[in-house]
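Ticket #4471: complex job returned nothing on first submit. Input attached below:
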Amino acid sequence: MGKKSDIVLIENGKRLDGRKPLEIRDTEMKVGVIPNANGSSYVRFGKTIAIAAVYGPKLLYPKHLQESDRGIIQCRYNMAPFSVDERVRPGTSRRGTEISKVIKLAFEPVLFLENYPKTGIDIYVEIIQADGSTRVTSVNAASLALANAGIPMRDLVVGLSGGKISDTIILDLDGKEDNNSEADVPVAFMPNKKEITLLQMDGQLTNEELKDIIKNVMKNGEIVYKKQIETLKKRYDE
Amino acid sequence: MRTNYIFKLLEKGERIDGRKLDEFREIKVLPNAIERAEGSSRVIMGKTDVIVGIKLEIGVPFPDMPNMGTLKTGAEFSPIAHKDFEPGPPSEDATELARVVDRGIRESDCIELEKLCITEKEKAWDVYVDVHIINHDGNLIDASSLAAVSALLNARIPKLEDKTVIRTEFTGKLPVVKKPITVTIGKIMNNFLVDPTKDEEDIFDSRLSVATIEDGKICAMQKGNKTGLKESDVEEMIKLSTKKAKELRKLL
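Support reply: We reran it on our side without changes. The output follows.
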C-alpha cells in the first residue's frame, strides 16, 4: 500500500487509456431498467458496470429490525462471479459487507427516513463488470435508482474517485490505476448541499494532496451530477 | 383476481398477454454482454432478463476423470430481480435452476471436456457457468439455459504461461460442439403452455423442462410443481418441447 509500482501509469500527462489526469471515463446512465423494482438504474464508467434496484419503503421484517420512529436503509453491494478476471465466489465477503455499509451511509443524510417509521428501503447493487471505482459507480447507480423509485431526496448523491499516480492527481481510477496508484480516495457527496457522505482512502498522501483531490472530485463531480440529472429528465420526458 | 382472470382466459384458450398457448415472448439474445468474462450472453425474454458469464480457472481434474476439465454451474437470484429474492445463500429454487441448466449442458456432451485437460491428473480448466438474474418474470430455466449455451458458444480459452493465466490473450475457442436447448412446458388444467410469465408459472399444476439436442435426442428433464402427470401428458409435453426447441436454437 502506498508504494510505487513498476508500472508506468502516466506518461507525458496521458494515462494508459489516453485520458488526461482529471478526465472521467466515457459514462452511460439509464433508469428504469428492472421492471420488477420500484426504481432501478444502469451506470457504466468505462468498463465498470453497476445495476442498481430499489425496493421499498416497505414494512420491515423481521420485526426486531424495525425502528419505531424512522425507516432504515438496507444495502447490498455484490459482484457478479464473472465481473472480474478471477471468478468471484458468490456469497458474502468482508470487502462486500464493508462497501455495502459505506454506500448505505452515503444515503442516510439524503432520505427523509423520519417519514417512514417501521419500514425498510432496500438498495441492491450488482457489479456485473468491474474495472475500478466500483463503489462510487454503485453510489451513482443507487442515487439514480432512488430517484427513479420516486423516493423524496434532499439532494442527489454523486460518486467519484480520486487518486495519485507519479505525483499527479487523477480522477475516476480504472482497475489498473486502482491497484497500482499511490493512493485512492473514493468520495460521494451531495452536489447542492456540498456535503461529503462517503470518504475513504488508502495509500499515502500529504495534507495538501488530499485537499487537492477532494477539491477536484467535487469540482469535476459536477459533470457526473449533470449526467444524472439529464438521465432522469430524459426518462420523464419520454 | 389476476389468477382468476388467467384461468378464465385459458378456458377460451387465451393468455393474459394475448399470446397463443405455445408462443414465446419476444426473445433477444445478446452475446458478449460482459467484455471481461471469457464468454457471456444476456437473454431477454419478455420482461425476464438474465446474464450468464463464463469464467475459466485452473483446477484439478476429478480422480475418476483424470484427463478431463470440469463444468461448474451456479445461479444467483440476485435481490435486484424480484421483491421476493433476498440476499443470502442460494435458495432451493436457485439451486434447482443451476442444476437444471448444468444438466442440459453436461448430458448433451456439448463441451468437449477432454480437450480441457492441461496435465493429466494434475491440471485442467474448470469451466464456470454463472447465471445472474436481472429481472424475474417467469421461465428462468429456459432463459438461463439459452443464455448459458449462447455464452459457451462465444467463450474463449485464455492463454496459459507457466502457472499464470493471461486473460487478455486467448489460445482458441472453448470446444463447444452441440447446442442443447431447454424448453419448459407448463400444465394448467388441461392446457399446455410455453414460456410462462411469473403470474402464469405461479399457478402451474405441473411443469416439465426438457433439454434436447440437434438430432432430436432428449438429454435432460426435470418435472416441477405439485400435481402429477399422466403418461400421455408427458408424451405431449415432450413433443411440444422438442418442436419449440427448434425455434429457440435458431436464435443462437
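Chain A has a mean pLDDT of 95. Closing as resolved unless it happens again.
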